[in-house]
Design a protein that fits this description.
By secondary structure, the protein is an alpha+beta fold. It has helices spanning about 15-20, 45-55, and strands at about 5-10, 25-30, 35-40, 60-65. Helix content is about 20%, strand content about 35%. The radius of gyration is 12 Å and the shape is globular.
């Protein structure tokens, strides 16, 4: 993966507001099920691994990870 891709990452738990600022260029949105959606561009595989490691270190279990189609016009 050498180009940025738009990802949607769902984790169990709600991120405290001060943690949300730790995710550069990602939007963190809590949902009604007690989960948090992180969405945005992730520049490369190393950044994705770093993000997943950070979530694991914080004890936030990964529920879903989806790489979006780069040609999807709804991602702008």
């Amino acid at each position: 993966m050498s180009q940025p891709y738009h990802y949607i990452i769902r984790v169990e738990g709600v991120l405290p507001a001060h943690w949300r600022d730790c995710f550069d260029h990602l939007t963190a949105t809590p949902d009604e099920n007690g989960q948090t959606l992180l969405s945005g561009l992730i520049p490369d595989a190393a950044a994705l691994r770093g993000l997943l490691n950070k979530l694991q270190d914080w004890g936030l279990p990964l529920v879903a990870l989806e790489r979006m189609d780069p040609h999807d016009e709804n991602l702008t």
